[in-house]
Amino acid sequence: MKVIYTDVLIIGGGLAGLRVATGVKERGHDAIVLTLVPPKRSHSSAAQGGMQASLANSKMGEGDNEDVHFSDTIKGSDWGADQVVARMFTHCAPKAIRELAHWGVPWTRVQRGDRTAIINAKKVTITEKDDAHGLITARDFGGTKKWRTCYTSDGTGHSMLYAMDNKAHEDKVEIHERLEAISLIHENGRCYGAIARNLMSGELVAYVSKATTIATGGYGRIYSVSTNAIICQGIGQAIALETGVATLGNMEAIQFHPTAIVPVGILTTEGCRGDGGLLLDKDGYRFMPDYEPEKKELASRDVVSRRMTEHMRKGKGVKSRYGDHLWLDITILGREHIEKNLREVKEICENFLGIDPAEEWIPVRPTQHYSMGGIRTKYTGESQTLKGLYSAGEAACWDMHGFNRLGGNSVSETVVAGMLVAEYISDYLESAESHISIHTANVEKFLKIEQDKLDALLSKEEGEDAYKLRRRMEEIMMEDVGIFRNGKDLQKAVDELKELHKRAKNISVFRSKSRAANPALVNAYRTQKMIKVALTVALGALLRTESRGAHSREDYPERDDANWLKRSITSWPDAEDELPTMSYEEISIGEMEMPPGFRGYGKDLTLHHDETPIRQSAVDAITKELEAQGKDRFEIQNAVMPFIEKLPKKYQGINERLGENV
Amino acid sequence: MSQEEKAPRILKISILRFDPHDPDDFPHMETFEVEEAIGMTLFVALNEIREHHDNSLKFDFVCRAGICGSCSMLVNGKPTLACRTLTKKLDAHITLAPLPLFELIGDLSIYTGKWMRGLNERLETWIHNKSNELQVDRLEERMEPALADEIYELDRCVECGCCVAGCGTIQMRENFVGAVGLNKVARYHLDPRDKRTDEEFYEMIGDEDGVFGCMTLLGCEDVCPKDLPLQSKIAYLRRMMLKNAL
Fold first, then answer.
1. What residues have CB less than 8 Å from A344, skipping those under 6 apart?
2. ipTM of model
3. Fewer Cβ atoms within 10 Å of its own Cβ: the N or the C terminal residue of chain A?
C-alpha cells in the first residue's frame, strides 16, 4: 500500500483549493493538492464576467461598501444565507481582490474622464473621477445596487486562476495531477485523508492527513445541459456523503443562468447584460421590462431565468430543432466594446454558433449553472459533523448564497473562503487536537474497500451500462428537477432515481477492462456517486414545500418563512439505505442583521414568520439609538450582529476606499 | 433544399491510438463512423464514439468551451482545440492524433500539465517583488488602464501547447521554451509589479534555448487558438535582449 502523509490534503485545484494551499503553506504547514486536471484547467477558469468586491472606485460604484454588498447578497439569497458568513465574506472581498492584484491579476482599470456606456438601452456618458484613475474598475451585474463586479475583460476567472496557480508555484505547493479522491478515510467522527486513484496508472494511493479540504466545485453535471465543465460531477460532495457522517446542505438549491447558448449550453457572461445587452423574444420584443420594470434584464439570475421560461411558455420563444430559445442582443454595445470587454463571448459565438455577436443576436436559454448547496460547514469551513474535514468554494455550503447566488459572488467566494479557511485550518493544525493516530491497518481497510469496488466493476459480466443510467439520471434532473418544480414531477424523479441507484450497484464495465487510464471505469464509479448526489437534490426539492430563490415550486409559490426558514441537511448514514436522510437546521431570525423582507421582484408572496417584525423593530431600535449617539456604521453593525471577532486577526482591518479611511 | 434538410453526412474519424500501459499495444490508426449532427463539434463526436463505439478511447476535455486549453490535438495534422472545432468545417474524413512532443497518456490524451508546470517553474512565472509587502486593507496600487489591458492580452494564453506542437525549433532543441514561454516572459517583463531587471530576464532566456533559439518559422503564430501576438512579442524580446547584451 502506498501511503503519503501530509498536514493538509486539498482535493481540487481550482481557485478555492489553491488559495487554501497557499494560505496553509504561508503558515508553515505542508499541503498537497490532488487535482483531476492541471490546476489552470479547472472550472474556475471559465468564470467570465467578474468578481464582486465593494471597492467603489468607478463612478457607478460610488457609495458602495460592505454594507451594500451584504444587503444585495442577503436579498439575492432570498434570506437563505448565513448572515454572519455573508458579513465575513463582504468584509474580506476587497482584501482578496487586492491580494490578487498584488499577485499579478491585470484587473481592468478606471480611465479618468468621459466614457460612453449603454444603460437601459440608452447611450449615456459616465465621467470617471481623476483620483480614481488607475484603480480597479467594475461593471454592473444582476441583483446589485452598485456597479461592483471587477473584471479582466471577460476572462476574469482565467486571470485569477493563472495568478493563483503561479502563486502556488512560487510557494512550492505540491500538486498531484490526475489524481482523483474516491473516498474519505475516517474513523470515530474524524477525517484522516482520502483514498485517491491515479487516473493515468490506475494506482490507488492513501493520503493520510491531519486536515482534509474538499474544493471540487459544484455538481452541475448531474443535469444533461449545464454550463459547467464536464468535471463538475459532484464527486467531492459524494465522497463526503458516503462517509455517512459528513452532511450536505441545501442540495436542492440549483441556479440556472439566463444566458447559455443553444444548444450546447456554453455560458455567455452576465456581463453581456451588465454592459447593456438586452433579452428579446421571437418578435424582437424586449420583454423583461414588462415583468420586472425596475431591474429588467438585471434582476437576480433566478428571477430572470424564470421570467424567460414563463415568456417562452406563452409561445414567445424562438422555435428551433433543439427546443425554444430567446435572443441576447449585444449588438447595441458596438464592436469596439465587444472586442475589448466581451472577447470570450465573441470567440464562443464565432466558434460554436458561427455568428458575429456585434452583428447578430445570440440564441440563449436558461441553463443549469451553479450549485448553491454543498458540503455543510461551520463558518470555519469545517464540516459540522466530521472533524478534520473542511470544504471551500462551490463545493461547500458555507453558506453565503442561500437559495440564489449573485453573479460575481462565486469567484469572489472561492478566494475569500480559501484565504479564511486556510487560517482556520492552520489554527487547528497548531492546536493539540489536530494530532492524529490511525492504525495503518485501518487505512489499508479503506484502500481495500475501494480496490474491491473497482475489481467488482471490472469483473462483473452482463451488468448495467453506466452510460445509460447516467443519461437517464441527467434527463430526470433536467425534466423534473429544473427551473420550475412541482410535487408530482419531483416524486416521479425521486422514485426513478431510487431505482437507478439500485441498478447502479450492478454496473459492469464493458469491453474496456484496463486498470490503468480507463474512461469507462471512471464513468462507472462516478455514475454511482452522481446518482446519489442527484437523489439528495431531488429529495430536498420534493420535501421543501415552498419557493425560495432558485427553488421554485409551482404548487407552493410562496416563500414560507413561517415553516421553511431553514437549511436542508442531507446525510447517507447507511450505505444500504435506499434514500438519503433529510433533516433541517433552523435559521434564527433573532440573530439576523437583516430580517427577512421582500426582494422586490414580482408580487410579494412571502408568508412571514412571527419573529420577523419583532427582530426588525429590535434592529431598527439599536440602529436609531446608536445613530443618535453618533456611532459610525461599523459600530452600529457590530451592535446588531457581531462578526469581526470570528475573522482571523490579519483580516479584521477596515478596508480603505477613496474618501473613506484613507 | 436547405443545408439542414439534406441527409446528414457520415463522418469517418480516424484516430491514432496507443495505450502505453498495455505491453501488447502498438500505435495504430482506427476509424470510427459517426453520423454528423447540426452544430457538432469534435467534443460531441468523440464522446459519441466513446459512448457508443469504444469506451476505452482516451481524450481530454474539461470546459468544452475553448477556454481551458485541455483538448489540443492534431486535427488533420494541425494543432488546435478540438472542443471548438465544428465538424461542418472539415471534410467527412477527419484524422485525429495526439499533440506531439508531450508525454502520451493514451490515445489523444497527453500530459501537458507536467510540461507547462516545468516551464512555469523554470521561467518563474510569478510577480517578483520582495520589497513591496502586501497590505490587504490599503487601496490597491494604481496601474495605467491601457497597460493593464496590454498585460491581459498576453495573459490570455491557455497553455494548450498548440504553439509547442507547431514549433520547428523545439523539434531540434528539446529545451527550447517555445512561444508559450517567450510570451510569458514578455507578459512579466511588461508588468511593472514584477521587479526583475532586464539582466535577470536575459539570464533566463538570452540563449539558444530561449529567444535566440527561435528560427522564426512562426508556426506558433499560425496555430495559436487565442490569436496571441506571438510573432511581435518574440521580435520585441529579441530586440530587448540584444540591447541588453550589447
1. A48, A153, A154, A155, A269, B67
2. 0.96
3. C
